[in-house]
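Let us practice reading a record.
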Amino acid sequence: MTVELRHLRYLLAVAEHANFTRAAEELHISQPTLSQQVKQLEKALGVQLLDRTGRSVRLTDAGATYLHHAREVLRDLAAGERAVLDVQDLSRGHLRLAVTPTFTAYLVGPLTGEFRAAHPGISLDVREMTQDRIEAALLADELDLGVAFRGDHLPGVDSAALLTESLSLVVGRRHPLARRRRPLPVAEVAAQPLALLSADFATRGHIDAYFAEHRARVRVAVEANSVTALIEMIRRTDLVTVLPDAITRGHPELHPISLDPGLPTRTACLLRRASAYQSAASRAFVHIARRSARPS
């Protein structure tokens, strides 16, 4: 018997659900048919791939090893299909993009607007996720490009510098510090109740490292997992936060205050899987992103 692509997809579905019934529902086939197909695959390979003795189905050691290679085959096949369908004149196509949450607040809108104006035939799938998830999704061929920060990336992920981002302390227009024109010593931040992004955000790690470096004991009164929510809190309360200057510039009701010493800048990058096929749509987006990020 010859192993066919459907056998790989069937095994992958069973492994992901750890259950034949749920896997069959996802595949839109009957449970007996699915079970028979997996048994045929095991017979062709001459090895047991699944342990069916427990309450849930799990991979044997041989099954886990085989599935690793099966995933690579299916991933490369999907990339090949996209390459065949790729249209070099950009009259049609598809691009899968992910960004870290702070970039959603100021970068995604202008970039997608410019891209759509130049290439209306290209459909976009834009997702917001943490940097570690972006890199994992790139390696799994679930994304074409990511926008995140320069740093230590997973093996197999390439990065290219896009822009330099600066940050400031930020208050609402009614806050007493809004009238301040001189930089605020970092030690004085301890007197202010802070509202910061949660630890899931790369921005939070950047801020925490800055305060730790300068031995500033700060009081975090509120944590938020949304930049939009953070902005609304700063507008309406006596809370203080730290935000990228590009976000603050877009909200006249927010007032940035420089810190002394200043918050360090950080570099935003375009990320992609090193061995991935780069479609015409992907190349066009990279070109627009680099052009837009270039200082005027």
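A brief commentary: The first strand starts at residue 50 and ends at 51.
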